[in-house]
Design brief:
By secondary structure, this protein is mostly helical. It is built from five helices and no strands. Helices cover 71% and strands 0% of the residues.
């Protein structure tokens, strides 16, 4: 129980730092477009979550992949890559400053990494009969 509490505190610290970097990348240069990165990285695990239970049965192998699960992973990878690419594209178009782009990328990576770490740590194991 204590180690779960320490894990939650640790992950919440990194999530707060990630959001802080994203918000600072917007506020310091008075351009709020990098805030879209936070939205992208928060929504990135959604396809994986939605498609994770599609096509699975009780008798199949736990590690078998179905086309629905593969589609969810593919959509998630597209969203994650676009989350990293959006600040670089905005920087290249000179819409945002390079420092704002880098802060937004690092903050987005911290947010997405925290979400993935949280789901990995607190994943419910299926009970065997």
């Amino acid at each position: 129980m204590v180690e779960k509490l320490k894990t939650v505190i640790f992950l919440s610290f990194f999530l707060a730092v990630g959001f802080l970097l994203i918000i600072l990348s917007c506020a310091l240069w008075s351009n709020w477009l990098p805030l879209l990165v936070a939205l992208i990285f928060v929504l990135a695990p959604l396809p994986n979550t939605l498609f994770a239970h599609c096509g699975s049965d009780d008798f199949g192998n736990e590690y078998e992949s179905t086309p629905a699960v593969d589609l969810g992973r593919f959509i998630t990878s597209i969203v994650v890559v676009s989350g990293f690419a959006l600040p670089l594209i905005l920087q290249h178009a000179e819409v945002i400053k390079p420092a704002a782009s880098y802060m937004s990328i690092v903050g987005g990576a911290l947010v997405y990494g925290t979400i993935i770490a949280y789901t990995a740590v607190f994943k419910q194991e299926s009970d065997e009969f």
